[in-house]
Amino acid sequence: MVGGARPRKQPTIKEVAQHAGVSPMTVSRTLAGGANVRPDLQEKVLSAVRELGYHRNENARSLRPGQASGLIGVAITNLGNPYYGNFALGVEEVAAETGRRIVLGNTGGDPARERQLVADFLGRQVEGLVLVPSGGSSDHLRPERLGDVPLVLASRRIYGLDVDVVLLDDVGGAYRGTLALLDAGHTRIGYLGNVSSEFTGARRYEGYLRALAERGIEPDSDLILREHAIGSAGEATGRLLDLEDPPTAIFSANNRNSIGALREIGRRLRSGARPDEMPALVSFDDFELAELMPVPVTVVDHDPRQLGREAAKLLLSRLGNGERHQGSARLVEMPVKLAPAPSP
Amino acid sequence: MVGGARPRKQPTIKEVAQHAGVSPMTVSRTLAGGANVRPDLQEKVLSAVRELGYHRNENARSLRPGQASGLIGVAITNLGNPYYGNFALGVEEVAAETGRRIVLGNTGGDPARERQLVADFLGRQVEGLVLVPSGGSSDHLRPERLGDVPLVLASRRIYGLDVDVVLLDDVGGAYRGTLALLDAGHTRIGYLGNVSSEFTGARRYEGYLRALAERGIEPDSDLILREHAIGSAGEATGRLLDLEDPPTAIFSANNRNSIGALREIGRRLRSGARPDEMPALVSFDDFELAELMPVPVTVVDHDPRQLGREAAKLLLSRLGNGERHQGSARLVEMPVKLAPAPSP
DNA sequence: GGATGTCTTGGTAACGTTACCATAGCGAGC
DNA sequence: GCTCGCTATGGTAACGTTACCAAGACATCC
Fold first, then answer.
1. Which residues of chain A does B4 touch, with a Cβ-Cβ cutoff of 8 Å?
2. Beta carbon of A14 within 7 Å of strand C?
3. In this complex, do B81 and A85 lie within 8 Å of one another by their Cβ atoms?
4. What angle do CA A286, A292, A297 make, to 5 degrees?
5. pLDDT of B188-214, one tens digit each?
């Protein structure tokens, strides 16, 4: 085993041709399906391919005019977050169904990094871009910069940019989640807001307000914590619970906030607080084992993978055939659903 | 806005050259750093680049001999799982630090899909491969198939394949987790096994057995459920709890099993079971809010992102400079740690 | 048998880029 | 003034691939 054959560089079509005793064109034709190539030659070619471990050089292939690269550029803010992981998975699946691959970049929410990634993707001749925007300037996404490469935005839209967008039904989900608390008899409902994404944060807040308004309840600014300055969701929850007239329920606009809130609630219960003093919780974003929590938790559930699939489908429809699909920008809102909540 | 400029195809270096009134070579040199190009021409070139929105065609660039593609192929089993999402993030980060990008494919654990992805990656001239193997034949990973493209395996190793591997310290983690239960006075410790990955499953089982052996406890086959035939972790937990002499603690070999076990425990508590009748749990794989669970949960915590970073570093070290790093295969085991456990 | 058509094969050029070579300009040194 | 050396610029070829064209082989049909 030791000192075995040196790794060889990838063989070219020329070498395969030589090995099979035919011209490169015959190899090319065979690999393209074998039309108008004698079966015996095809076999010779295919066994040469197997023997040498040959793979067509896709980069060289995509160089030829009219040949697409088969790459989709995907830039998301945090791959480690299961939400975006599933989103990327959805994009990957749909891309794979058409034989395409994704080049993936993590922006970490940094606009500079996003610009860099987009430039790199364009250099790699991606056929399209799927992007979870990081905020900041959107100059690098203007049509004259992207040329003929279509773009789909996800989770967040950029005003003034006329491109396809996929979003969750943030407003509807927050509305229905809040309404569920109101229907259960709660009238003092805290709002735990969104630091990470102002756009979805604003939309979810809108849903919360709409539900309150519908029941004629005036929003109480003491109960609404959506500032960036808040140290953590746990701390914010503590502030809500320490109010003179604390909320009996909390609407939490995202996963991170929900986890923080539950941690704080857990701390207080361990310190001797009575369970019926603790608020019920509605969480935008699902999380596991919600049913085992010490307070009733309702989740606004959604499917980020489906969101990714939808984004990819929008993108692919813009690639279509030769002539670009020229329809105007579309906005897709994916439905969310309330998971059955234990009564408060 | 409507009927605005048609999207143009990506400009070429030739068009930039024409626009700037120089030759393509001067453009190329300018973009390569500008050595031996008059400053005034450089400026002309750069403004033509900006004006046309030009990006170098990396595919064409990588066609030239000696030029690397800057792509790393990454194939994982399930991007939606935060474990693999974070793993991929780690690989992406390290790749990005050297200006490389990752092409990502999801195998879904399907060996055929894995073969297909690897072939595609090779066709795209990736500089290296990072793979979470799906099992099945490994013919497509033999050195003569990969040529000069280095491979790093993660989470699972393939015997007979002499390549770099990164693993968690599965044995040690399971050993220490089980030992913690023994130290807390448990003697009947159930084992909830791994369906998804036989390799890590076997290693974790080994750690469990080692801990028992060290304390002179004979493993009881009634307490050990690691068959594929088990319907679900919840059902398996039910079987353990329904034993005449049920375990007072359970070691669960992965996240999925832990969640299933906790769901079953939750069901029984809601049906009136007494909390002190329920087993303590040690879970290999962290999960959020473990501290809020109705039974004491200790987790064997680890950092999949770091695992990904390590995998990428091993890979990059094989790329090094011109001549391939020829050292023999390395095996890296990433440390895990026990999260502080509430006493049982 | 000759014209016509179909099938098979190979040569050539081009995709976008840059290493290499050639050339021109210019200042320094004798 | 002539060479030498250096800088700046451009032309050419090649990377691996395949569309297109040309040409040969062979069968078909009148």
1. 143
2. no
3. yes
4. 50
5. 999 998 665 678 999 999 999 999 999
